[in-house]
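Re: the request from the purification team.
They wanted to know what the chain is likely to look like in 3D before they choose a buffer screen. I agreed to run a prediction and write the result into the notebook, where they can find it.
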Amino acid sequence: MDPFVIGFQLNPIPMRVPGIIIPSPDDSKVLLQYYNSSLERNETTKQITRFGSVARILGGLKANYSNSAPKVMFYSARGPDPEDSFLNNADILKPNLVAPGNLIWAAWSSLGTDSVEFQGENFAMMSGTSMAAPHIAGLAALIKQKFPSFSPAAIASALSTTASLYDNNGGPIMAQRAYSNPDINQSPATPFDMGSGFVNATGALDPGLIFDSRYDDYMSFLCGINGSSPVVLNYTGQNCLSYNSTINGIDLNLPSITIAKLYQSKTVQRSVTNIAGEETYRVGWSAPYGVTIKVAPTRFCIASGERKVLSVFVDAKMNSSTASYGRIGTFWRSRVMLLTFHCQSLSKSHIIPQLTSEDWSAPYGVAMKGGSDLLLYCQWGKTGVYFDMTMNSSASYGMIGLFEIQVRAPNILLSSKPRIIPQLMPED
């Protein structure tokens, strides 16, 4: 029973005899007290001679149908995906997509012992990822049957780029936001709720263009994650030492682009392969909030089996403390392929007084906090380090990257005075 949902709800389970569901122990006590007080017993044998209790069914609940499907359930896992043990957001979109997974009626092994209520049953109705995954596995098998040469990445691409963003009424797919009354507490789903969207079986069998990646690409990506070598060795049997170069998540040829932190501008490339006949595509896009996008080429002709590279130039126009989303689409007649885009933008920030008179520029940042407190943020590659200082503190030194930073509040000095300046970052 779920007492937080209006009218209560119960997952359907087999019941051998007619029964009632009582939602709480207190309600059970009331029923038992009435039952016992209504019995008549033989004074000698104490056997029940008459059942005096009566019951009626009153009221009840009217079934409410939203007529809107699909929607993301409140218990469904959400993104973003953590990159490593430091829980920084990864440049990888999760979830990938969504599929039917709520109250799915399907075959069940009568010998199963993991769910006592379904023992001996040949069918069961359940919810969760375990119900959605078989739908995807079945569709993947159909795609592999039609395209035997497809890699796992190609199959995933076909499923993602053809997924639907809309429900059966033509409105945006909704996501439930709360455990209590989930159909009331909901809002349009974002890519962190549904990934590329709701799987489209028909579209996935005719994707037109695919984003393909090799096994070695994924190995290079995994080996580039901090502290991943033992995990990779355990699951693959391969040593990361054999991979001299690594790939960042943003550079994997995925059917999505995720930039956890966009510092000013960046160019991202994606390679598409045509698995249909010769076609001419045009490219369109909607940019995330605070960001401008340019894609080249905006129109291209691609032969069957040919590969083309799309270059996506992304420029942050303002600071944003939250993620925003966009889409890049390729269009040919009735065929539409969508690439999900997410980023959090960080453009030029506040001007810091008394910084120094040097004309510096580099991927580092400083931000002044209230009063005499100072927050220095140093960024080197993927590693960020914060220092907090006050006017009363002595000079602080730290080796960040390849050169020494000297901090003396309220001014920031670089002891070796290279031609660099911190790239200014927004305060948290």
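For the purification team: Helices lie at 25-37, 129-146, 152-161, 191-194, 201-204, 215-223, 229-236.
Please add any questions underneath this entry.
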